[in-house]
Amino acid sequence: MSSRRSRISEEEINELISKLQSLLPETRRRGPGRVSAAKLLQETCNYIRSLSKEVDDLSDRLSALMETMDNNSAEAEIVRSLLRS
């Protein structure tokens, strides 16, 4: 069984790189200009790692907060309803 890979044109790659660059805070601050694809991918990986760490930290803080709350309190119910949304 042979599969045929579709080719992505250089123009499509440049468009995807430009879109990715617009999503990253570091590259947006830098302003318009060309960044190498390798540098952009490295910055993307770093940004994803930092977001993952931030999620872990916020999760830990939320867990600690929930432990200090009375499970039947209004505040605990508000937090639970926010987590369900």
TrEMBL record:
<feature type="domain" description="BHLH">
    <location>
        <begin position="1"/>
        <end position="51"/>
    </location>
</feature>
<dbReference type="Pfam" id="PF23174">
    <property type="entry name" value="bHLH_ILI"/>
</dbReference>
<keyword id="KW-0341">Growth regulation</keyword>
<dbReference type="InterPro" id="IPR044293">
    <property type="entry name" value="PRE"/>
</dbReference>
<dbReference type="InterPro" id="IPR011598">
    <property type="entry name" value="bHLH_dom"/>
</dbReference>
<comment type="similarity">
    <text>Belongs to the bHLH protein family.</text>
</comment>
<dbReference type="GO" id="GO:0006355">
    <property type="term" value="P:regulation of DNA-templated transcription"/>
</dbReference>
<dbReference type="InterPro" id="IPR036638">
    <property type="entry name" value="HLH_DNA-bd_sf"/>
</dbReference>
<dbReference type="GO" id="GO:0040008">
    <property type="term" value="P:regulation of growth"/>
</dbReference>
<protein>
    <submittedName>
        <fullName>Transcription factor bHLH135</fullName>
    </submittedName>
</protein>
<dbReference type="GO" id="GO:0046983">
    <property type="term" value="F:protein dimerization activity"/>
</dbReference>
<keyword id="KW-0805">Transcription regulation</keyword>
<feature type="coiled-coil region">
    <location>
        <begin position="48"/>
        <end position="75"/>
    </location>
</feature>
<keyword id="KW-0804">Transcription</keyword>
<keyword id="KW-0175">Coiled coil</keyword>
